[in-house]
Every structure is written in C-alpha cells, then in structure tokens.
TrEMBL record:
Residues 56-101 form a coiled coil. InterPro entries: TatA/B/E, TatB. The keyword NAD does not apply. It is a single-pass membrane protein. It comes from the Bacteria. This is Sec-independent protein translocase protein TatB. It is found in: Cell membrane; Membrane. Keywords: Cell inner membrane, Cell membrane, Coiled coil, Membrane, Protein transport, Translocation, Transmembrane, Transmembrane helix, Transport. Part of the twin-arginine translocation (Tat) system that transports large folded proteins containing a characteristic twin-arginine motif in their signal peptide across membranes. Together with TatC, TatB is part of a receptor directly interacting with Tat signal peptides. TatB may form an oligomeric binding site that transiently accommodates folded Tat precursor proteins before their translocation.
Amino acid sequence: MLDLGLSKMALIGAVALIVIGPEKLPRVARTVGSLLGRAQRYVADVKAEVNRSMELDELRKMKESVESAARDVQSSVQSTAAELEKDLGSVGTELKNLERDHAEDTSGELWRSTLDAASQVVPAYRHPGKNFRLKRGAVPRWYKTRQGGLRTHVQSGAARVARFRPKKR
C-alpha cells in the first residue's frame, strides 16, 4: 500500500500549490476529497455485499442441516409409531385369544366382567357453566344491605370525608 507519512503529505501539498496555484487549490482539494469519499463508500458497499453473500451461504447450509435433522427426527418418530402400532395390534390379538380361551372356562364369567369393568368409558368433563365462581362466591344482596356494605355510587376519599364531616352550626 501507499506509505504516506506527514513529510510526504507536506511534499505533495507544496507541489500541488506550485502546479495548480493558490486560487484553484481549494476547489481541487474539495473535488479530490469528494472522489476519495465516493471511493471509500464504494469499497464499503462491496465489502458489505461480500459479507452478506457469505452470510447467506452460511444460512443456506444451516437451513439444510436443520431440514435434514428434522427429516431424521420425523422418520424416527414414524418408525417408532409403526413399531408401537404393531405391538399394540399383537397385544389386541392376544387379548382376544385369551378372552376366547377363557370363555369356555368356568371362570369365564369373572374374566368377562373384569374386561367389561375395565372397558367402561369414563364420563367426559362437563364445564360447570358461565360465571361459576362469580355465582358461587357472590355475597347475597340482602346480606350486604344489612351489613352496610352495599355501595351503589363510588366516591373518592375526599368526597367521602366531606360527606361525613360534621356540619358547622
């Protein structure tokens, strides 16, 4: 790169003053400065574009790795589900065989009643209804009026003090 020190900058300034002249030197310096600024902005834009493209490549690779991991997990879950389904099917056939074998036995009735009790459906949850807690926890209006706790109009603290202040005679 260019190794510009203070002495070289002073030499370049002196030569420019002699060659260009003192009248045109400020305008030329402004033009050179603006050109250098444009060049620096262009270089910064190119660097940013290269960095963005590198980040996009990294993101694509990361996306592919995540997708492959998701496919692996999905295939393992599907295979496990298929194995469980096969095992449950074999257990079901074994239960049917046992039920048929025990139907001829004298204890078949006990076995059948045990299976019937196990296969009973549990009743579904029924929501108690709208405003359940409000209805259950509400204090009756007659009790509130008896205790003096029924307020129909809400007042501020200052209004309450003024209301209950003894009247001047």
